[in-house]
């Protein structure tokens, strides 16, 4: 499955058609698997790593599931990632992760300005949605299509390939759409 495709309904159908009844003669089995490496490779397959630049990025994972993914991505990306609330904690000591929460946005914006970062990202609980911040800490609204972890990587890949020097130049209308990011990246890759 390619992460760029929207095939969650296909996965749901496969699960619904599967026989998970242990009484059906299949002994219950437990399998421990680490899917992080495969997930990270799928994310990175959408871009050309050789063309990325060493941007500084504030990543606010709000103690949720994006934290471990950022830790794994950090090892493969040339970015200086400033991690905020990055330790996974089910009690969410810094509030429930919500990329629309104004207090969390303010906190992330302040961190972008304080760190003099090129960009900031704030994710929701399952990192399907995100809120981006330009180099001045200004919010950039957008539609992730449940691909919040991929969006920020696409934006920085676009920035590296374009003639723009900053995220605010790349996204001057202060918004983004997943499909448009993908299409722009394809156009610049020709």
UniProtKB/TrEMBL annotation:
Assigned keywords, A-Z: Isomerase, Magnesium, Metal-binding, Phosphoprotein
The protein, known as: Alpha-D-phosphohexomutase alpha/beta/alpha domain-containing protein
One protein family per Pfam: PGM_PMM_II
Listed InterPro entries: A-D-PHexomutase_a/b/a-I/II/III, A-D-PHexomutase_a/b/a-II, Alpha-D-phosphohexomutase_SF
Lineage: Bacteria, Bacillati, Bacillota, Negativicutes, Selenomonadales
Cofactor: Mg(2+)
Alpha-D-phosphohexomutase alpha/beta/alpha domain boundaries: 38-137
PANTHER family: PHOSPHOMANNOMUTASE (PTHR43771:SF1)
Alphabetical GO biological process terms: carbohydrate metabolic process
Source species: Selenomonas ruminis
UniProt signal peptide: none
Keyword Isomerase: yes
MF (Gene Ontology): intramolecular phosphotransferase activity; metal ion binding
């Amino acid at each position: 499955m390619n992460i760029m495709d929207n095939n969650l309904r296909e996965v749901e159908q496969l699960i619904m058609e599967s026989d998970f009844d242990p009484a059906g003669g299949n002994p219950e089995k437990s399998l421990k698997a680490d899917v992080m490496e495969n997930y990270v490779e799928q994310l990175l397959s959408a871009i050309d790593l050789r063309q990325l630049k060493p941007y500084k990025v504030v990543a606010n994972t709000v103690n949720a599931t994006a934290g471990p993914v950022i830790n794994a991505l950090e090892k493969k990306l040339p970015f200086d990632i400033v991690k905020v609330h990055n330790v996974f904690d089910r009690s969410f000591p810094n509030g429930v992760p919500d990329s629309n929460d104004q207090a969390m946005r303010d906190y992330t914006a302040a961190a972008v300005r304080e760190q003099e970062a090129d960009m900031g990202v704030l994710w929701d609980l399952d990192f399907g949605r995100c809120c981006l911040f330009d180099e001045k800490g200004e919010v950039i609204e957008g539609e992730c299509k449940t691909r919040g972890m991929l969006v920020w990587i696409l934006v920085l890949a676009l920035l590296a390939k374009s003639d723009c020097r900053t995220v605010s130049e790349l996204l001057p209308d202060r918004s983004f759409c997943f499909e448009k990011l993908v299409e722009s990246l394809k156009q610049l890759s020709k």
